[in-house]
Amino acid sequence: MKHLYKKIPKIDELLNLENVKKSLKLYPREFILEILRDILNIYRQKIKNGENIEINLNIISNVFDEELHKKSQKNLKRVINATGVIIHTNLGRSKMCKDAINHIVEVAENYSTLEYDLENGTRGSRYSHVEDIICKILGCEAALVVNNNAAAIMIVLDTLCKNTEVIVSRGELVEIGGSFRIPEVMKFSGVILKEVGCTNRTHLFDYENEITENTSAFLKVHTSNYYIDGFVKNVKVEELNVLKNKYNKIIIEDIGSGTIVDFSKYKVYSEEDLVQNSLKNGADIVTFSGDKMLGGPQAGIIVGKKDLIEKIKKNHLLRALRIDKFTLAALESTFRCYLDEKYAIENIPTLKMITYKEEDLKFKAEQLLDLLKDLKEFSIEVEENFSIVGGGSMPKTKLKTYVLDLKHDRFSPEDLEVKLRNSKIPIIVRLEKNSIKLDVRTIEEDEFKYILESLVELRCY
Predict the structure, then answer these.
(1) Is 58 found in the same domain as 141?
(2) Count of domains in the chain?
(3) How do residues 18-73 score in pLDDT, each as one tens digit?
(4) CA gyration radius for the chain?
(5) Are residues 170 and 242 both part of a single domain?
(6) How is 92-149 classified by DSSP, letter by letter?
(7) 331 near 408, Cβ under 8 Å?
(8) Among residues 160, 223, 147, which one has the least CA distance to residue 189?
(9) What is the pLDDT of residues 403-425, one digit of tens each?
(10) 3-state SS, residue 390
(11) Do the beta carbons of residue 192 and residue 163 sit within 8 Å?
(12) Which domain range does residue 423 map to?
């Protein structure tokens, strides 16, 4: 085996390979050298292990191309979402609208008025860029934005309720993604938690019975990702408003998903409360996410009474939780879409996917089927199925959709899922009933060609 070591080429020889020379024009020299050294080290290890291997420049050239492709890939990359989960937390939640993307690019490529008041020529507030448009859309007195909804509820409680009692229904003491729990957030904010009611039933008198001189607020929390049916009772904001006025307390609602469109107008069932309705019904402060039902960037949006928002703006935590210029740009452009609801439905991807007409989805599925029909090694059919909204939003809602059911004559569904997930542009699919499902609701038409390319490449295996 020792004679094989002599066959290992020198780095200088590899640098003269045509594909390596081309790559040196595109990538740093040290990056290319590292790849070549790694390849040669793999050969040395195989020889050491007693493997009888073939070594020639053609093989090394092909291995180099494969390694270059792998190592030049970014860790955070685009994928094709074929799962039918619209707000897919693991895949980045909501896709942003073109208006938001263009605005991000504009402020990224240029200097901006991030904290500059053009009218007075003085330092300005970054939050002023979004506060007016948020208030206009939601009809609230004031607004503030931090980096996510957990941060929003934390700074609200820290500012308005520190060292006081906050009453919450036991049925709303939720755990959200990543094991973040509302009781822990409250504890971190310096709040004394007062649990009332039972898991399935809480009454207005439960809240009233726990009110003391040290009670500052009632907290309502959106129950993300689950719901309880059957023998249940929840106290609504408008009911709590009676106690608020009677005892001079405040109502804070973490509404979670941030729905501001009445989806019943589009024949879509939604149990989500509208942000606007929560404010009208008596909530003094409402917090919600920017990257869920709103269809914007990750952000924690705080809206409500002006005097309370002004207090939150003075909290030193705000500096640690503030949003950057890209989030501001995306959020402003997203809210501007809502000036015309029809425009928002057509141009904000999350809203468009939720309100898709069944006939349009069927046509889309048939288009994809037609594109893939010549792949003889596949059995492909269009089927009716259901999509979900995802991201903890509208957990009761199932949206009728159309999927392509894929089976391969050699690969099991599990093997096929892995190969699609490892495509040049990863395709994330649904594995269901011993076959692969591609839900066209969350696939863009310009992604069809990439799906075709990935399936054709399977012939090489």
Answers:
(1) no
(2) 3
(3) 999 999 999 999 999 999 999 999 989 988 888 878 888 888 999 999 999 889 98
(4) 28
(5) yes
(6) TBSPPPHHHHHHHHHHHHS---TTEETTTTEE--TTHHHHHHHHHHHT-SEEEEESSH
(7) no
(8) 160
(9) 999 999 889 999 999 999 999 89
(10) strand
(11) yes
(12) 80-90+354-460
